[in-house]
Write a structure and sequence with these properties.
heterodimer, A: SH3 type barrels, 6 strands
Chain lengths: ~130, ~100
Amino acid sequence: MLAEGAFVKVLFPTAEQPRRPGLLHIGYCLAVAPPLALVAYTSSRSWPADVPLPLGVRVFGRDEAARLNQRPFVLYLKRIAKLPMTARWFPEMHEPSAGIVAVAPLPLRDELLDIVRELLRRRREAIRRFGS
Amino acid sequence: MARSYKALTLRLDAGRFERLAALAAAENRTPTNYVETLVLRDLAAKDEARRVISVYAAPEAAELTPGPLGRGAEEPEERYEQRKALVAELLSIPDPE
């Protein structure tokens, strides 16, 4: 069952077509508040070595990714989708696995929540600083 | 490529216009330039906030009300409450489109 910490197969919307289900990705489930789920984007495209990591981007190397049943990937907590828990967005939700490939252990879930908390703090700060 | 500009008409009651003019004069601006600056600041704030974190919403999601936040059997009350606050803030972020 989909829950916080799950890495789940999801048709994450693209920037070009944010209103439609996009390509199949593995997303990280930040929260479930039925009938909605908040899912963060992941990509298997590696992060460029010469580009510093911004807050909200978390790289999972080979070993850590393998422990989560995945190839190396990059998690973008800066890019979240609010999605209905339906097969239109979670195509494998009715299969026995529910499309869940792994569940993050608690220390990792806490680490990722801390990153989101800091992103939200910076968002509030940006609005306060640039607002009138 | 040359920028193109659009004009708009803004109507304010006389009292508010006087206040606007006084605020603009204090910054050596015209009222028009003062209003333009306010708009540019607001757009910059929205761009900056979006750069920090974006929450895209599926079209169907707009009509759905989130129910109680899912909670694991062993999640402590304190963590759950912190997560509830965080999720409420995430859900309040407007869709960037």
